[in-house]
Amino acid sequence: MPAWRHPTTMAPSYPRRVTPDPSEVPQAFREVLRSLRRADVRGDVVLVEAPAPSRIAPYAVALDGEIIVDGNAAASGRFVVLHDPDGQEAWNGTIRVVALVKAEVEPEVGTDELWGQVAWSWIDEALSDTPHEALGGTVTRVTNEAFGDLKERGRTVIVEMRISWTPLETDMTSHLKAWAHLLASCAGVPPLPDGVTMLPGKAS
After folding, report:
1. Is 22 inside any structural domain?
2. How many angstroms separate the CA atoms of 71 and 176, rounded?
3. What total number of domains does the chain contain?
4. Quick one: which of 46, 83, 98, 144 has the fewest CB in 10 Å?
5. How far is CA 41 from CA 36, 105, 135, in A?
């Protein structure tokens, strides 16, 4: 498990709030951190703590992740939990999950007009048993075609999904699992038993 920093050090430059005394850290965010510490996800997902955004909310935590297939990363992404005790209108709540998934997919995806809808159905499925609301996001496809001396590389298609939603609970276990499920879906990897490999993260 990565060495978790105290949440008051995660967003010191948030413009609306002076960094509080540790005893003033909201209970809701403490519960968020505890649930992330104990969460188990797919055994082929590697997580590492990442620098959290500092200007979106007064409290934040971020994890970078990769799903590993045959020793290589088949998909990667980031899972961020934001907390603003005062709430934010766009969130319709005080906690917001912001997630990113990026993967290289089969070239045929570049010409499939329905693929974005299919990809979005995966996040709907992943979150089906997870209490949440205000789900929104985008699915982007980038096609790269090589020419000349690079033509042997052929055509590659990168898919990027950016999603956010408002949890209706402080336990992030099922939310983190849903994101890991999406990583696997984008990578075309079948389900695996739970269990997570963690790497030590760097404090910033």
Report:
1. yes
2. 22
3. 1
4. 144
5. 10, 23, 21
Residue 99 lies in a domain: yes
Task: Classify residue 2: in a domain, yes or no.
Answer: no
pLDDT in tens, 48-94: 999 988 889 999 999 999 998 888 888 999 999 999 999 999 999 99
Q: Identify the DSSP state of 115.
A: H
Q: What is the pLDDT of residues 119-133, one digit of tens each?
A: 899 888 889 989 999
- Written as six digits, the tokens of 127 are 């979150």
Q: Indicate whether 134 belongs to any domain.
A: yes
What is d(CA 184, CA 163) in angstroms, rounded to the nearest whole number? 15
DSSP secondary structure string for all residues of 182-194: HHHHHHTPPP--B
Write b or e for each residue in 80-93: b if 16 or more Cβ atoms lie within 10 A of its Cβ, otherwise e: bbbbbbeeeeebeb
pTM for this prediction = 0.79
